[in-house]
Every structure is written in C-alpha cells, then in structure tokens.
## 1
Amino acid sequence: MKRGMSRDPSDEEDLRKVEEYLAGESRAFEYLFGKYREKVYTVAFRFVHNKEDALEITQEVFLRVHQGLGSFKTDSKFFTWIYRITVNRAIDLVRSRKSRRTVPLEGAVEGGRPLGEVLPDPQSSNPSDLLVRKELSESLFNAVESLSAKHRMVFVLHAIENLSYKEIAEVVGCTLGTVMSRLFYARRKLQQILADAGTVKR
Amino acid sequence: MNGKSGCQKVEWMVGPLVDGELPAAETETVENHLRECESCRRLADDFRAFDRLAQGWERPAPVSPAEWEKVWGKVQSRPESVRMRPVRRPLEWMIPALSLAALLILGVWIAFQAATRTPTPVLQEREANKILKEAPGSPGTAPVGQKPGKSS
C-alpha cells in the first residue's frame, strides 16, 4: 500500500524523535535506527544484491543521518530524507562497481509471446508454473540490472518499494513529470531487453 | 484516437493508468483507447506483469541481532559530529529570574508610593474639620464646605 502524502502519526513521531535527539536525548536516535534499519537495509539490498554491501550502506546511511540531523528540515518527512540518502548511496556503490555487473539473459522461457500471456497466475502452485515464474523473474531481474542508475532507481522505488509517484519525486528530488518519463522509459527498455533476449514478444 | 499517432499520444499514460496515478479526466480516454488498440493493451499487460514479477523477487538475506548490534556499534563509535541545537529548558532559569524581577518591581513601586504620597481630599477635609472643631471660638458644628448656621 502506498503511503499517503499527508503526515501520519508515524511521521510526527519521527520528527519528535529528531527534536528530542537534538535537544540532547541520545536514545531518540536509537529509536530511529531501530525503526528504519530494516527498511534501509532492504532498499540497499535491492540495488546491490548482497548482504555485506547492503549492511555497509545501512551503516553509512545512519552515519550520514546522524551528521545531517542538525540541518534536517522538520517540514520534510524523515522517511523521505532517509530513503533519499539510501538510494543515492546505493546508486553510488552500484556505479563504482559497474564493471563487475553481468547481464546473462537465459531466455529459458518459451519466447515470442507477450509477457502477460507467458506469466502464470500468481496463485498457481503448479510446479511448471512456478518454474516459468522463477525464470521470468530472473530475466526481469537481470534486465533491471542493465538499466541506467536513474531509471533503475525509479523502477525499484515504484515496483518494489511501492512508493507513489509523488513520493518518488521527493526521494529522487525531481518533478512528477520526470518520474513518469523515467518510469515509462524504464519499462519500455525492459520490454525491449526481454524481447531482444527472446524471452517475450515485444 | 486510434492509429500510430493515437498510440503516441496515449502510451505514456498507460503506466500511470496501471499504477492508479492517472487523473480521472484522462482515464476514460486511455481506457477507451486500450479497448480498441491491442498494442497498447499489451503494453499495459507487460507493465502490470513487470510489477508482479518484481514483487516476487527474493527477500533480502536476514540480518541477525548480533549483526545489527555490530552496525549500531559502528554508528555509535564515530565522533560526535551532529550539530546539536541548544537545549531549550526555559523554566529552569526563568522562574527564579522572573521572581526576582517581580520582587524588585514591587519594592521600587512601594518606595515610590511612599515618597510621593499626598493626602486625599477626603482626608484633608476631615483634618480641617477636626482642627476647626478644636479651635477656640469656632462655630463648631459647621463642617468645612458647609455654610455656618445652616444645618443639614
């Protein structure tokens, strides 16, 4: 479920904790760490795909948050701010390791058919359906890996993190129109990559 | 709105439609187009399929409490670099300060009143009546402000 854009009690609690921490209550930061560590780790993992790097990013994110709390604007949302730091750090790491990335597209699924037709019912527990689903999922995963950082970021925030367009715009620091444009391009590119690999029909 | 130019006008709105982000004003237009255009319908199906597949990607490897402790330890061990705002505890110093200020103002006011005090007209009148009453040969009964010989 997408989060609403108005502040909910959770956002208010975050801001209260930031204020408390800045007023000298050291345990308030521990609260923020406890609340967001899993989320930060999960987002980081979606970009770097391994535990060690994701944990390293998590650590760096909280250090940056700690350093930046004094200048954090309390008219923003804490979660948006920490998301932005996480995504930027993860993208930096991915860029620095770009040469290590490989994009094997197996094309194990019978190609030449639209993805919507090939993709089995999500409720199906039929072993062959599960296999097809797994292979398609891996193909898409590899295709997403080959997207540029900015398109990948928007796709991951939308499809995995389930953020609304407006939230993505806040996290990435761009306009709604840019979010739409990048998401459209990312999806079109994924179609093209999968079609070129023979996985699906364009 | 059919044909290639129709698709070009509509296809960028297919994603927002699938995501529930398209304004109501455009939704009907795009839905009508999708009913008649197989290519754009397939685009919408693929976009939905991407999201469904991505949702099923592997969950991140779990992190044990000991690993979280380690991360937290490293975050805590860094030198204090956050710019702390001044602690705002106004009542701690304001209560005695305000009490002292109030006492000073009260003292100054009392001293001022005592130094500049003048008898009120009523008191002046009473004093005068007393003096006149006690004075030899005074009409005695006529208070100040009343003509002698005219009783009330």
## 2
Amino acid sequence: MDRRQFIQAGSAASAASVLGLSAGCASTAGGAGGNVVVVGGGYGGATAAKYIRLWSEGRVNVTLVEPNDAFISCPISNLVIGGSKQMADITTPYDNLARRHGVKIVKDRAVAIDADKRQVRLAGGQTLSYDRLVLSPGIEFMWEALPGMKAPGAQDKVLHSWKAGPQTVALRKQLEAMPDGGVYALSIPLAPYRCPPGPYERACQVAHYFSQAKPKSKVLILDANDDVTSKGPLFKKAWADRYKGIIDYRPKHNLTDVDAATGTLKFEFNDDVKAQVLNVLPPQRAGDIAHHAGLTTANKRWCEVDWQTMESKAARNIHILGDALQVAPLMPKSGHMANQHGKVAAAAIVALLSGRQPNALPIYNNTCYSFVSDTDVVHVASVHRYDAAQKTMLTVPGSGGVSVAASELEGKYAMAWARNIWADTLA
Amino acid sequence: MKSRILSGLGALALGMAASAAHAQVDPMQVRSWAAACANCHGTAGRAMPGNEPLAGQSKDEMMKKLMDFKSGAKPATIMHQLSKGYTDEQLAAIVAWFAAQKK
C-alpha cells in the first residue's frame, strides 16, 4: 500500500463519520462502537467484515486488509481446471463491501501483530490499531516436508493450484499442453487439509476433460490417506461408472519428495511415480500471520479458539476463522464453514464491544457440493452445535448426510449455493 | 396417509412451539441461527436466483415445509438432512425471524 492509498482510506473513514455511518462517537474502545481490523478477505474475513457492519448498524469501524484485487473462489475453481468454467465465473470484486457496507479496504498484506499494543503492521509499513482483530489467514504450505520443491523453478513447474488464482489458470494450461496418452498425477496429503473432497472432485474434472479431449490419457491419484477422506462411495462410483480406465486411485501413498526436473514423485513406502503433469498438494498449516504470532498452538500447525466467540485461546482480542483452525470433530476445512465462523465472530464482537454477553449456543451447518462431471454433483451436509460440557462444536446426532447419487439437479443447487454464498460474503 | 397425519400433528405442535420459542430465546441468538441459512438462502433470507427466498415468507408455510422435511413427508436433496439438526423450537424461532424480514 502506498501513502496515497492510506490517505484515501483515511478520508473514506472521515466521510463515513460525516454521513453518520460510524455514528460519530464510535471511535472509543469499549463503547458502543469500536475499531475492528480484519486480516484476509476470503470466505471467513469478508463475511466477518460485512456482518460486523450490518449487526453493529454501522457503529463499529471495520478495516479489511487484503492484498488481492478481487475475491477468487476456491469452490468451483476445479471446474476452471476441467474447462467448463472460466476465471471470471469464480471472481467477485470487493467493491460492495466498501460501497454498501462501509468497510474500509486496505490493499496490503498484514505481516506482524503486537497483541499487547493491539496493533497490526502491514507490509507497506503502516500500522493499524484495533480493539478487536479478526484473522482469516487461510493456509500456508509446509514446503519443508518436500525438500525438492525448494529447488529453483520447482514451484513454477509443479503446481498446487490449491489457492484459486494464477495457479488455477496455469494448471489448466499444463493439461491443455499435455499430449494425449499422458499421465496427470495428483498427490494428496494426510488429513487435515483444506477442502477434504476437493482433490477427488479435481480428479473427476481432469478425467472429464480427458474423456472428451484426450481419451488415451490417465489420472493417477496418489493419496497419503488410507482411503478417500470424503464422500468415498460416491466418488468411487463416479470413477467406476464414468471414468473407468482413466482414473487410477492409489491410497497409502505418502509423498516425501518431488523431483520437478524429471517429473518424479517419491514416497515413504511406494515406488517412484513419473508423470507428464504433476499436481502436488503439500501438507498445510495456518497462514503465516497467525503462525508467526504464536497462535498455532495445535501441533504448531493450527489455531485453537473458543467456539462461542472464535477468540484465540492463545491471545485476547484476536478472533480466528476458517481453514487456519484446529477444527472441532467432523468439522471440515471449507469455505462454507469459514463463512459461518465469520458470522459467529461478528455477532460475538458486536456483543462484546457493546457490553453484552456473546451468544451461548452457536448452531450452524455445512453444505459441500462436488462436481463429478461438468453437470452432475454430489453433496455432504452436516449441522454443528455448541456443546457446553465439552466446549466444542459437535455434529447433531441424526442430522446431516450425503447424496443418494450424483444428479444434475444437485448441479443446479451447487451453482445456486455458489451465487448465494458469494453474495452473502461479499455483496 | 400415515405421514400426512403425522405432519398434521407436527403443524399443530408447531403453533405452540413457535409461541414458546418467542418467550424464551434471545433474539440475538435467533438472528445468528438464521444467519447460518444465508449461505444458500441469501443474507437475511433475500436469496439469489436458484434457491428459495425466506425473507417475508409465511411463517406457517415455512414451518410446515421444515417439519415435512424433518419427517420425510417432503422429499429433498439436502433439507431433510439439515432440518434434523435443529429442535422444533429452534426452527420455529428461525422461521419467525425470516417471516419478519423485508422481502
């Protein structure tokens, strides 16, 4: 962020005060208003920013720190890799958060937190003060687990495409450039990782593309887990019915290194695998800003929170959302769940800043749709309720479940879900 | 036939549940429960195309649908699984909140 942008953000704030959006008196800590900084404009952070403004009726000032120009959705991004959607279909601007909801957007990256002073330092050198901080830092890759990926150029050649953006396009180009008869190899890390069914959906999308355009080509899934981690029977049925002879699923393949120059994957117990296109999902942890602030208290990978408020167990006044969390039992790392975390945090922050008790009984759902072709979809759904005795979120017995079978009807609902969650998060 | 009788009984139980819920549940809590529906049904129930809007809809009709999802009387892809995650009282409070929102 340059100086001019900072000044612009400042004048937007004063304009908001004049218009009564921040109610004039809002700037004092602990009063009716307050200042919240949200780091990360993904499903969690953008939702929290919007709902804090909505539910405080504009009394709490919200600054969203996000380096990207626009929101690019990970859900539906596998369809860009498969070729049935374009980047424009999964991209939403941040304008409405500013224009409709009065969120101040600072295009920069947060690099450090001073929890005692309640300040966040940005890469551009500016410092933002907060009464409450929301971190929605997403995931970072643990490259140290795959030494060969640190070789010069390795990360440009062997893609993860597990953060939707330039790598989504780049992987599509690699698949288009691959000659028919080639092999696409997808390596999946041990759970937990972002979006449990996502890799298996991706395999379907690539296989669908191959079945249409390159029928002699193969999809090789090399999974570190003992079995498919989500919607297993539904994915296996799709592979058997739709992609027989194209998809080869191999469990218990724990990747230990990658030789990008020769296109080779190396495993703990299995023989090396060579392929024309390698797609490696490395092991993951919470994003750097949370990790470096000492908030990854679970295994030095994930952040632990109080589920009634999403406040960190390691630092006061810091609320953490989304894939960065040490999840509750059966809670997936998903965009849908991050959006729900954002609303729990928003309600708690608005309550706490105005001296009320936060809600005692969070209840929210997860719905997750996976495309097994360009039109047909399967889902998994769950309902999660706060358990006061165990102080965690538990799935409600008897609720939730999966599709009976893949269907085009659920394909329509999947796109309706996408339109609605994008609007709920950003519009 | 059996399911019709059951859902009739459900609707009857509902009226009572709805009034009980109003008396007991903190409105801020209900607003947060309802917000968890927005991912598919739009912020405050004002849905984008493809899913049913909930804002300003009839409380009784929404409740009957939910109870029929819960009992299995009304077929669904996903709502029969989600509705079972809430008590009747919680559902009654949530539909009352949506019914009170502007369309």
